[in-house]
Amino acid sequence: MSLPTAPSRTAVITGADSGIGRATAVRLAAAGLDVGITWHSDRDGAEETAEEVRSYGRRAETVPMDLTRLPAAADAVDELHERLGRLDVLVNNAGTGTMTPFLDLDLAKVREVLDVDLIGPFLCGQKAARHMIRHGDGGRIVNVTSVHEHQPRVGAAPYCAAKGGLGLLTQVMALELAEHGITVNAVAPGEIATPMTGQEDTDPHTERRPGVPLGRPGDAREVAAVIAFLAGPDASYVTGASWSVDGGMLRMGPQAGSHLPGDDWRRP
User: Fold this and answer.
1) Which residues are part of the catalytic machinery?
2) What percent of the chain has pLDDT over 70?
3) Tens digit of pLDDT for each residue in 29-67?
4) DSSP annotation string for 74-109
5) Edge-first strand listing for the sheet containing 139-144
6) Do 171 and 240 touch, CB atoms closer than 8 A?
7) Considering the entire predicted model, what is its pTM?
């Protein structure tokens, strides 16, 4: 008599139509997870991500999600849970931002950024955690923040407020969900070559960034590798932490990383 096989682990990744989200979907598929993908405006990009996931022999499902339309947008998590049959990992990756001086910001833009970058992850996290608790075998939640979770940037007031808030929300979630075997961590990227930074087709290893100690932007796959670690069995005793993936940018102070024009800082 054959024994019943354990169900496949599944992950839901918001904003997985490109960039860090796509790289994470592919990395988790390579690790054996089925993947639910949300997208906002790039349906074709989401389908391309799904095809990459399927190339590893894993299931992929895609649904649209507009986090400016809350709370209904978070229902995408429930839909993907239903399609995939369970939910083991949530990666809150979808995000937006603005480069607008503080005095020129209007309330609509502030609310948009806060909804997408903070309230949306809050609601998606609630839904995912409830499914994980019902399944009874724990789970992983990874919130993608930014180096600006930790340090400010001129012109990015709502983005910094949202990412800073998401960082502390991560810590509260970690404390409250630990009893259910759910770990919650943040990953804080620096400058990563993605469509959000206008570098969709850029090889980051060929770009020079004097103000970043490692001297270049990051690759989305380098962020995905850290997310995959936190989503996997080797991180079972890691919770409530924020993992910077920034080439050392934060060690340079809040403004220096992507702005310094030369290497004079390297010499005493």
Assistant:
1) 159
2) 92
3) 999 999 999 999 999 999 999 999 999 999 999 999 999
4) GHHHHHHHHHHS---EEEE---------GGG--HHH
5) 60-64, 34-39, 10-13, 89-92, 139-144, 182-189, 242-245
6) yes
7) 0.91
Distances from the Cα of 233 to the Cα of 129, 193, 195, angstroms: 18, 28, 31
In degrees, to the nearest 5, what angle opens at C-alpha 94 toward C-alphas 89 and 100? 150
Which residue's entry shows tokens 């910077």? Answer: 244
Q: Is the alpha carbon torsion for 233, 235, 240, 241 positive or negative?
A: negative
* Number of Cβ within a 10 Å radius of residue 110: 17
Q: Which amino acid is at 141?
A: I
Confidence of residue 211 (pLDDT cuts 50, 70, 90): confident
Domains and CATH numbers, the chain: 10-254 (3.40.50.720)
Structure tokens at 108: 């609509």
- Residues whose CB falls within 8 Å of the CB of residue 55, separated by 6 or more in sequence, listed in order: 29
Please give the Cα distance from 192 to 173 (Å, whole number): 26
- Distance CA(75)–CA(66), nearest Å, equals 10
Taken in order 105, 111, 112, 116, is the CA torsion positive or negative?
positive
Shortest CA distance to 242 belongs to which of 173, 191, 195? 173
Residues 6+ apart with CB under 8 A from 43: 17, 62, 64
